[in-house]
Amino acid sequence: MESRWLARRRDAGFERSYAAVAALDLPQVVFKTCPWQPRALVTTGLRQWLRCCAAALQDGQLIGMPSHAVDEAWHGLILCTMRYESFCADAYGRFMHHTPVGGAPADSRAATEPMAEQLRRTVIAWELVAMPGEPCVLWDLDNRVGVDEPWGVCPERVAEIRASVTKLSAAVRF
Predict the structure, then answer these.
(1) Distances from the Cα of 142 to the Cαs of 4, 75, 137, 161, in angstroms?
(2) 76, 98, 154, 164 - which has most CB atoms within 10 Å?
(3) Range of the domain at 88
(4) Could you read off the pLDDT of 42-76 as tens digits, one per residue?
């Protein structure tokens, strides 16, 4: 059962991003460097990632990408610069930059923070933006689509993080 805190937190301004993500047109060119199938699964993962980004941006957090296949699709979207800029304005009210591993200034949080911590926050972001009962495809998507060197978050780690979020949200009283 979802706590009132988590339910209220989930409703905290994500309608804008939900609508923009749902309306986002993803033409074939977005998937030019993303050969993995089924495409619908990768598309679902990309949309879930973009929703997670809404929570991260709202809270000023840096999250990690759990899927190589989704990362490639996101790169394809970013390269459609006008579409991406318009989407960011619609979804987040500002531009969302991409900071690939090795691409951040040496003294920045993106360069110094462990990926495990960034991925932990991605799981938390999903807990905030997911609809009740909605499964997340991001954690094992690469295995499901056959990426040679899959990324991901193991089910045990996801469960551990979710339990911490549930425990924290139960402790918060309104």
Answers:
(1) 33, 16, 9, 20
(2) 76
(3) 4-171
(4) 999 999 999 999 999 998 889 999 999 999 999 99
